[in-house]
Amino acid sequence: MQSLFLYIGSIIVILWGIAHIVPTRPVVKGFGPISEDNRRIITMEWIAEGLTLCFIGVLVLCVSIWAGRQNPISILVYRLCALMLLLMAGLTALTGARTAILAIRICPLVKASVAVLFFLGSLL
Predict the structure, then answer these.
(1) What are the backbone angles phi and psi of residue 76, rounded to the nearest 5°?
(2) Rounded CA gap, 66 and 87, in Å?
(3) What local confidence, expressed as pLDDT, does residue 47 receive?
(4) Tens-place pLDDT, residues 13-63
(5) pTM
(6) Which pLDDT score, from 0 to 100, does residue 107 have?
(7) pLDDT per residue over 95-106, tens digit each?
(8) Which of 59, 54, 49, 51 is nearest to 14 (CA)?
(9) Which residues contact 63 (CB under 8 A, 6 or more apart)?
(10) Which residues are within 8 A (CB) of 9 and not within 5 positions of it... i.e. 6 or more apart?
(11) Alpha-carbon dihedral sign for residues 38, 85, 11, 95
């Protein structure tokens, strides 16, 4: 069952990362007329978060497949990834989730839920 938590969490966070990257252009346009520097910074940050989410999911998935779930290093990876997702969820809750954009408002819930799945998957 723990392996299932890890696989489901990995897939969710990878898909959430991709869903973050795909609409980058419309999101940046939604800020209206801003300077080119600000446009580049927002684009960079939006893509960076999406890539981070994808990386976390791929890392957990690869460690699960190739190192095994009960390896002490695997457990450390799962818990550190869970912690990172909780930190990202907290940051999003304090900033982006206070906007009217539904996808950003549910983002902390998605990240925290995957963090719980990773933690549950790390239990022996």
Answers:
(1) -60, -45
(2) 27
(3) 96
(4) 999 999 999 999 998 998 899 999 999 999 999 999 999 999 999 999 999
(5) 0.93
(6) 93
(7) 987 887 788 889
(8) 54
(9) 71, 73, 74, 77, 78
(10) 57, 60, 114, 117, 118, 121
(11) negative
Q: Which of 27, 14, 81 is nearest to 54 (CA)?
A: 14
Domain segments of the chain as ranges: 2-122
Which residue, 117, 114, 113, 121, is CA-closest to 70?
A: 121
Q: What is the pLDDT of residue 38?
A: 94
Res 102: pLDDT: 82
DSSP string across 41-76 = HHHHHHHHHHHHHHHHHHHHHHHHHHT-TTSHHHHH
Encoding tokens for residue 101? 């954009």
- For tokens 């869903």, name the residue: 19
User: How many degrees, rounded to 5, is the angle at CA 9 between CA 3 and CA 13?
Assistant: 150
